[in-house]
Amino acid sequence: MAKKFEGGVAGNTAAPGGALWVDQPTGRRRMPDPVRSSAVRAVLIVAVTLTDATISFFLTVTGSWLALPLSLGAIAGTVVATWGVLDVLITRQMWNQRHGVVSEPSSTARGRRRERRRARREARSAPPPPPRVPARGEASGIWPPPSGTGRG
Question: How many CA atoms, within 13 angstroms, populate the side-chain half-sphere of residue 150?
Protein backbone atom coordinates (compact mmCIF):
# COMPACT_ATOMS: atom_id res chain seq x y z
CA MET A 1 0.00 0.00 0.00
CA ALA A 2 1.53 3.33 -1.08
CA LYS A 3 1.76 6.09 1.49
CA LYS A 4 0.08 9.31 0.38
CA PHE A 5 1.97 12.62 0.69
CA GLU A 6 0.55 14.75 3.50
CA GLY A 7 2.77 17.80 2.95
CA GLY A 8 4.83 19.78 5.42
CA VAL A 9 7.23 16.99 6.46
CA ALA A 10 10.77 17.15 5.09
CA GLY A 11 12.03 14.08 3.28
CA ASN A 12 8.66 12.81 2.09
CA THR A 13 8.28 12.19 -1.58
CA ALA A 14 5.02 12.79 -3.37
CA ALA A 15 2.94 9.87 -4.49
CA PRO A 16 1.97 9.91 -8.16
CA GLY A 17 -0.84 12.44 -8.58
CA GLY A 18 -0.37 13.90 -5.09
CA ALA A 19 0.04 17.62 -4.48
CA LEU A 20 3.55 18.83 -3.73
CA TRP A 21 2.43 22.22 -2.44
CA VAL A 22 -0.67 23.08 -0.49
CA ASP A 23 -1.48 26.76 0.06
CA GLN A 24 -2.83 27.51 3.48
CA PRO A 25 -5.29 30.38 3.77
CA THR A 26 -3.94 33.45 5.50
CA GLY A 27 -5.58 36.49 7.00
CA ARG A 28 -4.09 38.89 4.46
CA ARG A 29 -4.12 38.80 0.69
CA ARG A 30 -0.88 38.74 -1.27
CA MET A 31 0.42 42.11 -2.40
CA PRO A 32 0.27 42.84 -6.14
CA ASP A 33 3.52 42.05 -7.96
CA PRO A 34 4.57 45.67 -8.69
CA VAL A 35 4.06 46.60 -5.05
CA ARG A 36 5.92 43.49 -3.87
CA SER A 37 8.92 44.16 -6.10
CA SER A 38 8.98 47.78 -4.97
CA ALA A 39 8.86 46.71 -1.31
CA VAL A 40 11.67 44.17 -1.78
CA ARG A 41 13.78 46.81 -3.51
CA ALA A 42 13.14 49.28 -0.67
CA VAL A 43 14.05 46.73 2.02
CA LEU A 44 17.32 45.90 0.27
CA ILE A 45 18.22 49.58 -0.13
CA VAL A 46 17.41 50.34 3.51
CA ALA A 47 19.46 47.32 4.69
CA VAL A 48 22.50 48.39 2.66
CA THR A 49 22.14 51.99 3.91
CA LEU A 50 21.94 50.91 7.55
CA THR A 51 24.98 48.67 7.11
CA ASP A 52 26.86 51.53 5.46
CA ALA A 53 25.91 53.93 8.26
CA THR A 54 26.99 51.45 10.96
CA ILE A 55 30.37 50.84 9.32
CA SER A 56 30.76 54.59 8.82
CA PHE A 57 30.09 55.16 12.52
CA PHE A 58 32.69 52.61 13.63
CA LEU A 59 35.27 53.98 11.20
CA THR A 60 34.64 57.49 12.58
CA VAL A 61 35.15 56.26 16.15
CA THR A 62 38.46 54.62 15.21
CA GLY A 63 39.63 57.68 13.28
CA SER A 64 40.09 55.90 9.95
CA TRP A 65 40.48 57.81 6.70
CA LEU A 66 37.63 55.73 5.20
CA ALA A 67 35.14 57.41 7.53
CA LEU A 68 34.58 60.42 5.24
CA PRO A 69 33.82 58.51 2.01
CA LEU A 70 31.56 56.07 3.85
CA SER A 71 29.78 58.92 5.65
CA LEU A 72 29.07 60.58 2.31
CA GLY A 73 27.88 57.23 1.00
CA ALA A 74 25.59 56.85 4.03
CA ILE A 75 24.09 60.29 3.37
CA ALA A 76 23.50 59.42 -0.29
CA GLY A 77 22.08 56.07 0.79
CA THR A 78 19.63 57.82 3.10
CA VAL A 79 18.32 59.86 0.18
CA VAL A 80 17.99 56.74 -1.98
CA ALA A 81 16.34 54.77 0.87
CA THR A 82 13.80 57.57 1.32
CA TRP A 83 13.07 57.40 -2.39
CA GLY A 84 12.65 53.61 -2.12
CA VAL A 85 10.12 53.85 0.70
CA LEU A 86 8.19 56.58 -1.13
CA ASP A 87 8.24 54.37 -4.23
CA VAL A 88 6.44 51.64 -2.28
CA LEU A 89 3.75 54.05 -1.11
CA ILE A 90 3.27 55.58 -4.57
CA THR A 91 3.19 52.19 -6.31
CA ARG A 92 0.62 50.91 -3.82
CA GLN A 93 -1.57 53.99 -4.27
CA MET A 94 -1.28 53.77 -8.06
CA TRP A 95 -2.25 50.08 -7.99
CA ASN A 96 -5.30 50.82 -5.84
CA GLN A 97 -6.41 53.64 -8.14
CA ARG A 98 -6.02 51.58 -11.33
CA HIS A 99 -7.51 48.35 -10.07
CA GLY A 100 -10.22 49.59 -7.73
CA VAL A 101 -10.50 49.66 -3.99
CA VAL A 102 -9.73 46.69 -1.82
CA SER A 103 -12.97 44.78 -1.51
CA GLU A 104 -13.74 44.78 2.20
CA PRO A 105 -17.09 44.65 3.93
CA SER A 106 -16.73 48.31 4.89
CA SER A 107 -16.00 49.43 1.34
CA THR A 108 -18.56 51.97 0.08
CA ALA A 109 -17.45 51.62 -3.53
CA ARG A 110 -18.66 48.02 -3.79
CA GLY A 111 -22.33 48.99 -3.43
CA ARG A 112 -21.98 51.76 -5.99
CA ARG A 113 -20.33 49.41 -8.46
CA ARG A 114 -23.15 46.92 -7.93
CA GLU A 115 -25.75 49.64 -8.59
CA ARG A 116 -23.98 50.79 -11.77
CA ARG A 117 -23.78 47.20 -13.04
CA ARG A 118 -27.47 46.62 -12.30
CA ALA A 119 -28.43 49.87 -14.10
CA ARG A 120 -26.34 48.91 -17.16
CA ARG A 121 -27.89 45.43 -17.22
CA GLU A 122 -31.39 46.89 -17.04
CA ALA A 123 -30.59 49.43 -19.77
CA ARG A 124 -29.37 46.64 -22.06
CA SER A 125 -32.38 44.42 -21.42
CA ALA A 126 -35.02 47.19 -21.72
CA PRO A 127 -36.65 47.56 -25.14
CA PRO A 128 -35.59 50.65 -27.09
CA PRO A 129 -37.93 53.63 -26.72
CA PRO A 130 -40.34 54.26 -29.62
CA PRO A 131 -39.33 56.96 -32.12
CA ARG A 132 -40.46 60.41 -31.00
CA VAL A 133 -42.66 62.53 -33.23
CA PRO A 134 -41.25 66.06 -33.34
CA ALA A 135 -43.50 68.84 -32.10
CA ARG A 136 -44.68 71.52 -34.49
CA GLY A 137 -41.85 73.87 -35.38
CA GLU A 138 -39.25 71.55 -33.94
CA ALA A 139 -36.37 70.42 -36.12
CA SER A 140 -38.19 68.01 -38.41
CA GLY A 141 -35.99 68.35 -41.44
CA ILE A 142 -38.16 71.03 -43.08
CA TRP A 143 -36.65 74.48 -43.39
CA PRO A 144 -37.93 77.12 -43.29
CA PRO A 145 -40.74 76.07 -40.98
CA PRO A 146 -44.27 76.31 -42.35
CA SER A 147 -45.93 79.69 -42.09
CA GLY A 148 -48.11 80.43 -39.11
CA THR A 149 -45.50 79.47 -36.53
CA GLY A 150 -44.63 83.08 -35.82
CA ARG A 151 -41.14 82.76 -37.22
CA GLY A 152 -41.23 84.78 -40.33
Answer: 3
DSSP string covering the chain, please? -PPPP-SSSTT--PPTT--S--PPP-SSPPPPHHHHHHHHHHHHHHHHHHHHHHHHHHHHHHT-TTHHHHHHHHHHHHHHHHHHHHHHHHHHHHHHHHH-----TT-SHHHHHHHHHHHHHHHHHSPPPPPPPPPTTS-SS-SSPPTTSS--
Return the amino acid letter for 1.
Answer: M
In the predicted model, what is the mean pLDDT of the chain? Answer: 80
Q: Check pLDDT > 90 for residue 146.
A: no
Tens of pLDDT along 37-50? 999 999 999 999 99
> CA separation (Å) from 134 to 59, 129, 143, 146, 151?
89, 14, 14, 14, 17
